[in-house]
């Protein structure tokens, strides 16, 4: 008996190693940057590696995270190529939705990077490089996490564009790992900024 999901001619071919590799890469990236950024925050590990220059250290992490993202996208596309397509996803409507998702997702990601700048996008707060003010304009008036939701939309768009159910499964994983990452990142960065606020207030009292 072959299960609906498990058979080779089913929705998803779980026998393909490329699927597991892509899934591992999707999970690895946020774990990597959260671990490294917290090491930087507590022990200044990257700043020490960069000879005491926090800005240079943050740029180094930015390049690393960006490259890991490109590599993950490559593994994702490679995994999809090994997967069966589904006729329901092979329609004109599906393709239009795919284009809309990829366009909207990229708008969210790129406008978020534009609004935050390089250090703001790539965990500068953990290096002590804080934003002057909380960014409230577009795309942050649409969603609090445009980078993560935009990225998820782009993954879903690709899944539909290729017409591959496996892509929808991997997109669900992307969303879940980002939602878990937010549970760690949001309170942590909120505390970094709250700490600055407390320091500013106590600094003013001394004047
Ligand atoms: C977000 O801000 C932009 C301009 O900064 C504006 O055009 C848009 O309507 C706003 N969206 C929402 C949902 O408030």
Automatic annotation (TrEMBL):
Organism this protein belongs to: Mollisia scopiformis (Conifer needle endophyte fungus)
Taxonomic path: Eukaryota, Fungi, Dikarya, Ascomycota, Pezizomycotina
Intramembrane region positions: 17-37
Record family assignment: Belongs to the class VI-like SAM-binding methyltransferase superfamily. PEMT/PEM2 methyltransferase family.
Protein name: Phosphatidyl-N-methylethanolamine N-methyltransferase
The keyword Cell cycle belongs to this UniProt entry's keyword annotation: no
EC category: transferase
Gene3D superfamilies: 1.20.120.1630
Residues in compartment: Cytoplasmic: 72-98, 184-207
Membrane topology per record: Multi-pass membrane protein
Example GO biological process: phosphatidylcholine biosynthetic process
Location in or out of the cell: Endoplasmic reticulum membrane; Mitochondrion membrane
Catalytic function, reaction form: a 1,2-diacyl-sn-glycero-3-phospho-N-methylethanolamine + S-adenosyl-L-methionine = a 1,2-diacyl-sn-glycero-3-phospho-N,N-dimethylethanolamine + S-adenosyl-L-homocysteine + H(+); a 1,2-diacyl-sn-glycero-3-phospho-N,N-dimethylethanolamine + S-adenosyl-L-methionine = a 1,2-diacyl-sn-glycero-3-phosphocholine + S-adenosyl-L-homocysteine + H(+)
InterPro entries: PEMT/MFAP, Phopholipid_MeTrfase
Function according to Swiss-Prot or TrEMBL: Catalyzes the second two steps of the methylation pathway of phosphatidylcholine biosynthesis, the SAM-dependent methylation of phosphatidylmonomethylethanolamine (PMME) to phosphatidyldimethylethanolamine (PDME) and of PDME to phosphatidylcholine (PC).
Residue intervals annotated with topology Lumenal: 1-16, 38-49, 120-162
Binding residues for S-adenosyl-L-methionine: 103-105, 185-186
Keywords: Endoplasmic reticulum, Lipid biosynthesis, Lipid metabolism, Membrane, Methyltransferase, Mitochondrion, Phospholipid biosynthesis, Phospholipid metabolism, S-adenosyl-L-methionine, Transferase, Transmembrane, Transmembrane helix
Pathway connected to this protein: Phospholipid metabolism; phosphatidylcholine biosynthesis; Lipid metabolism
EC number annotated for this UniProt entry: 2.1.1.71
């Amino acid at each position: 008996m072959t299960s609906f999901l498990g058979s080779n001619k089913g929705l998803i071919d779980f026998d393909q190693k490329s699927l597991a590799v892509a899934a591992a890469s999707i999970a690895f990236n946020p774990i990597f940057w959260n671990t490294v950024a917290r090491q930087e925050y507590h022990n200044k590990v990257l700043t020490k590696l960069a000879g005491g220059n926090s800005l240079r250290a943050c740029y180094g992490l930015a390049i690393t995270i960006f490259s890991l993202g490109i590599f993950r996208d490559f593994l994702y596309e490679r995994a999809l190529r090994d997967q069966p397509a589904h006729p329901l996803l092979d329609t004109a409507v599906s393709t239009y939705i795919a284009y809309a998702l990829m366009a909207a997702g990229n708008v969210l990601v790129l406008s978020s990077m534009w609004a935050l700048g390089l250090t703001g996008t790539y965990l500068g707060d953990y290096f002590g490089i804080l934003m002057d003010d909380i960014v409230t304009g577009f795309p942050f008036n649409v969603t609090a996490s445009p980078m993560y939701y935009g990225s998820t939309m782009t993954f879903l768009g690709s899944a539909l564009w290729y017409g591959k159910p496996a892509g929808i499964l991997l997109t669900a994983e992307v969303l879940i790992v980002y939602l878990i990452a937010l549970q760690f990142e949001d309170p942590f960065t909120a505390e970094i900024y709250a700490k600055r606020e407390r320091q500013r207030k106590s600094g003013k009292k001394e004047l």
